[in-house]
Amino acid sequence: MFFNYINKYKLIQGTVFYEKENNSPSTLKNIKINLYRIKKLKSSSEFNLYQKKLISSTKTNRYGKYLFVVKNNFHIVEIDIKNLPRGTGALEKELQSGKGSHQKYNFIVRKIHNIECDTSKNFSLNYKAPENSSIDKIRLSYENKLIDKRNKISQYLNALYDKNSLRSRFTSQVPIKSTTTVLKEIRDYIDNKNSDPSVVKRAEKLIRHTLPDLDKTYLSSDGHFNIHYTLSGENAIKGSIRNPKQVPAYIKHIADAFENVRNITCIKRGFTHPILHKEKDSMDIYVYNLKGVYGYTSSINIFKSSKGTRTASCYIAVDNSYSPLKGFKKSREDCLNVTAAHEYFHAVQFACNIDADFWWMEASATWNEDEIYDDVNDYVDYLKKFFSYPDRSLDKTSYDGVIFAKYLSEYFDGYNTIKKIWTVQAESHRNSIEAIDKTLRENYTNENISTAYNRFAAFNYSPSQFYKEGYLWTTPLSYQNTHKLYPVKSQKLKLNHLSSNYLLFKNLPNSFNVFIEYPISYLLGLKIIKKKNNSNEYEIIKLPFNTHANMAEIKIANFDNQYPEICFVPSNLEKEKDKLPYSYKS
Question: N or C: which end of the chain has fewer CB within 10 A?
């Protein structure tokens, strides 16, 4: 009987020592110690999933000692650092207890400034963050709560109509891709009864006088687009035109480009046709000096459907020259082509749901550019921002969110998936994440926004391997941490919804383990990406979801003979919940 008791139970005990400077250690009483049971839920040769559950707590006695009597299973003993004397910390917060005989686990407490430095050093990659346009800078300041909505709208107006009044920190030489969603934000502000009257009055005045007088028109070959332009003043079409009655080649090119975009987008692919203004048979395209803006789509009349969604008729404006002096890098024709594809898709969106999230409106409009004018690749520049900030939530992106649209179309039935998302968006959903989620759930088995994002985060580590045009995306991915020395002591991080961290491990020992802890209340995606020796290809290992697991162990043996590095990719797969806390060590 006594023998069976010994085999079934064991003692976990220890002492909390306080090491003062130049003194022999003393002990600390009344320090809280927590005991966790570790239950293995799933196992493979490369990972273990565990459930870590608090089962008991105690405090050290007057001699600094603690004691637990437990069943002979796996446990973790943790010192409660909130209970330590002010200005002190523990060299190790938790210690692991395996199966076996009675064990002692001592904790060492020191003054914080005397705690030994982590032997694992973090290295940041030297990369230059991409320059933002003035609109992106204003939006970023608003999202980070550096300015309020009133100031955001005021600075929008300055950026579009009065650059001399724009604050210096918002100035930029980067052309603005599209002001479609900016104009939508300004109009929404005007319609809001709680808005500042002085800002509303200024906005109404500036928007009312947006379009200049353009004295010439040209109807496209198939009659679907009426091009407005002029040959005089700052808005003139550049180039030698001896006969004023002759239509400039650039105007004909604009007409042909829009006809081509319409034919592919709506006729061949079946996207919703834009709503024409009143009883018009053609859409108005205005060509004038946009002063560093590619183009924009502006609503004219707004309609409310029985489903509660709003749609709108609209017109489109494009630049008269796309001159390098305005910051444009590609030829006039290339800039015009992608602008036509981008802005026409905004008109399609306006016919579905004018209140869709601006990030998805811009992401999918940018996607349409490359679908129709594949050789221009103007979108590639916008991906620099995405790869520089992978810890930014998906719905906080803008034009750079095109990478998610490309991922969806390449891995989920091409343009049909994008079309289905906009069909769902037209039915009832203002929130585009919800529209994407519903589309995936209803059309693809065991798929949703979380499963899609989980793979997406892994594929972005090696674009050339997983995307058709990934070889063009040369911006280096920004790592949250890079480790080269071991062991790595506990690192604490947080992730907002639909965002990822990339944790790089190099110069690894022959046998390597990473432990990660996270709350059960969040949906966390975990991937291991292993680079193959003498190759630019990567192997992805996805840890399975388990709603009861809150701890994982990643195991890699004989590492240095197979892989020069690995990347550990945790992702917050929640649609809205931010600040997912997790910690890892190795």
Answer: N
* pLDDT band at residue 7 under the 50/70/90 scheme: low
Q: How far apart are CA 20 and CA 27, in angstroms?
A: 10
Edge-first strand order for the sheet with 293-304 is 176-178, 293-304, 310-319, 283-288, 225-229, 216-219
pLDDT value for 429 = 65
- Find out whether 50 and 549 touch, Cβ atoms under 8 Å: yes
CA dist., res. 580 & res. 522, Å (int): 7
Which residues on adjacent β-strands are paired with residue 88?
Answer: 111
Q: How far apart are the first and last CA of the chain?
A: 41
List CB contacts of 14: < 8 A, sequence separation 6 or more: 65, 66, 77, 95, 104, 105, 106, 107
CB atoms within 10 A of CB 242: 5
> Contact 383/477 with Cβ under 8 angstroms?
no
What tokens were used for 170?
């918002």
Beta carbons of 576 and 434 less than 8 angstroms apart? no
184: Cβ contacts below 8 Å, ≥ 6 apart:
299, 354, 358
Q: Are 107 and 79 in contact (CB under 8 A)?
A: yes
Q: What is the pLDDT of residues 140-193, one digit of tens each?
A: 888 888 899 999 999 999 898 888 888 888 898 888 888 888 988 898 898 888
**CA-based angle 160:166:169, to the nearest 5?**
120
Q: What is the pTM of this model?
A: 0.86
In tens, the pLDDT along 530-579 reads 887 777 788 888 888 788 888 888 887 655 567 778 899 999 999 999 99
State how far the Cα of 299 lies from the Cα of 312, in Å rounded to an integer: 6
User: Comparing C-alpha atoms, which of 341, 355, 342 is closest to residue 426?
Assistant: 355
- Residues 298-329 as b or e (16 or more Cβ within 10 Å = b): bbeebeeeeeebebbbbbbbbbbbbeeebbbe
Exposed / middle / buried, residue 193 (Cβ in 10 Å: 0-12, 13-18, 19+)? exposed
* H-helix segments, 353-467: 358-372, 383-388, 402-411, 415-427, 432-443, 449-459, 463-466
What is the amino acid identity at position 294? Y
Mapping DSSP onto H, E and C, the string for 38-57 reads EEEEEECCCEEEEEEEEEEE
Spell out the residues 6+ positions from residue 46 whose beta carbon is closer than 8 angstroms to its own. Answer: 528, 541, 554, 555, 556
* Beta-ladder partners of 504: 482, 567
Cα separation, 237 vs 220, whole angstroms: 17
Burial class (CB in 10 A: 0-12, 13-18, 19+), 6: exposed
Q: Residue 582: helix, strand or coil by DSSP?
A: strand
Strands 103-104 vs 9-18: parallel, antiparallel or unpaired = parallel
Q: Is 213 helix (H, G, I), strand (E, B) or coil?
A: coil
Q: Which two tokens stand for residue 126?
A: 């030297």
List, in order, residues 6 or more apart from 257 with CB less than 8 Å away: 336, 337, 340
249: tokens are 């080649």
Give the C-alpha separation, 438 to 436, whole Å: 6
Which 8-state DSSP code applies to residue 168? G
SS3 per-residue string spanning 301-318: EEEECCCCCEEEEEEEEE
- At 139 the pLDDT is 87
